Amino acid sequence: MESIKLIIWDLDETFWKGTLSEEGIIPINENIQLIKHLSSRGIINSIASKNEFETAKAKLLELGVWDYFVFPQINWNPKGKNVKQIISSAQLRPANVLFLDDNHLNLAEVEFYNQGIFTKEPDFIPEISKHKAFTGKDDTALTRLQQYKILEEKEKEKEHFSDNIHFLESSDIHLAIIENLEPIIDRIHELINRTNQINYTKKRIDKNELEVLLKDSDYECKAVKVKDRFGEYGIVGFYALLKRKNQLEHFLFSCRSMNIGLEQYMYAKLNFPELQRVGDVTVELNSKDHPHWIKEVNDWTNDNQNKGSSSTKIFLKGACDLRQMAHYLSYKDLEVDTEYNNVNQNNHPIPKAHTEILLQSESLDEESKSELIASFPFLDQQVFDTDVFSSNYDILVYSLLVDYTMDLYQSKSSGIKIPYESYSDFVNESKAEFVARCKKHEFKNMNEVFYDFFSTEYDFIGQITENQLIKNLKTIRKKVKKPIIFINGAEVDTPAANKSEYGKARIRHEKMNNALEQFCNSHKDTYILDVREFISETDINHSIRHYKRSVYENMANELISTIENIKEQKLERNEFEYQFKRSLKILRSTFKEFAKNILLRASSLF
């Protein structure tokens, strides 16, 4: 193995211990952390597992890793063909892929259908983090993962079109030619030396040779960047044309831009110059086609850099499911900052989005915060850190589903309220049941000692009441000097997979939605993104709090519409205020003139 770009995981007895469809599973925290580490190095992860899709997805969502996988094939089909489909969707070669499975027959089948792929059993997993084939490169922003998420979204979208040309015409593909290459020389060097599948000349050069080439007036050297309605792909192509011979020295494109016709478009744009192809390529060129679905535009980088002066900056706060809505918002004329619930070092979700925690971020002193963080394994050092009360955005978008769901426990000594679990889970458990559940989920430090402390020092007071929610929202409304758009909850019955929650959650959501409407109707600059308008029971994924991807796209579109309405209202209000102040100024001036004339007449009488 030299360079692995994609790891495909089996789930049962590989990613986790046990069999999901039988006795249940025990998470392997080291594997969860490895997935996140690999993603931060630009190495992508997928799944080939024989399981029920929705059941496996629900478990991976619970573990907080679902969004780290792309192109998952979770079904009962043969794994050899499933893996082949994943590799095809990821637009990679088997030689850059590792498949992990505990069954040697599955490994043999995958090797048969995918010549050149690497396969290993689970005992190889501990070696991955230090193996040179998995070095990758720094990508803590998860840029590569997001680019593959775009590819994944496009794969799903294609299913709605009768032919690929129709799909491409609908994709709104924009291309920009970049002439100033000095700032992106590292990216060009990477493309030249790492791109194989769509590298037509396969000429490798070092950094110094590239610098000389870019300064050579005998060559026309330019880069290509692309975006479409699914997202931005960045710098994906480069060519160096020897002008006196009309011959391409370099002509190459990243596989992330494959299947949109980019290579043929550029070849036609250059009027089909001489090109000596070396080795195999995955995209053949011809001397006649001009892809009409690609639109050439000016580089939009400066537009993005200047967004702050013209676009709207929104601050999105809530549970981690909102990442899916942010995915769609990132393609609009918006700047999006986010603040989600996350998972701490104890592998436990943190209730950062609850209104009680948000208000405590300002009301509690540092000593009290530190004491709480030290006492509760499901909190961490960042739980009270928030930008909600800053002025670094234009509109706050706040999902209240954490308030709708979680229970509150109140300190007997200080009165401080802490959100934990939901629907009385903790109070209905014995100590042994609590410890067993936490051990199953690999929650660290959630042991007998913590159980005794929590059950002794804190009283269970249940979910936040409608009146207390309104009270909290009033305080937030006073502190936030910006428009607020609240996201409410669905009012549908939970799928049968969650019988224990069936009906109860819907009734709870109805009550909380009514309280939120009552609040918003009596406060200005306060709005609701009403998810009830586009959620039915078939749109729910295993829980009333998690929706199918299409719902998050609808939510994003509705949010954009609401933001546009807010901006229009603001313009109208500003115009009204201007006219009102102008009228006052005229009236004041008229009154002064009138008073002056009265005084002059009065003085003349005496």
Tally of individual helices: 21
**Average pLDDT figure:** 86
* Assembly category: single chain
CATH class annotation of the largest domain: Alpha Beta
Instruction: Return residue spans where pLDDT drops below 50 for at least 5 consecutive residues.
Output: 304-309, 496-500
User: Care to count the β-strands?
Assistant: 22
> Over the alpha carbons, how many angstroms does the gyration radius reach?
29 Å
What is the CATH topology classification name of the largest domain? Rossmann fold
The count of domains is 3
Distance between the termini: 109 Å
Q: What profile does the largest beta sheet have?
A: 5 strands, parallel
User: Percent of residues in beta strands?
Assistant: 15-25%
Strand order of the largest sheet: 5-4-1-6-7
**What overall form do the CA principal axes indicate?**
globular
The CATH architecture classification of the largest domain is 3-Layer(aba) Sandwich
Q: What structural category characterises the helix and strand content?
A: alpha/beta
Helix content: 40-55%
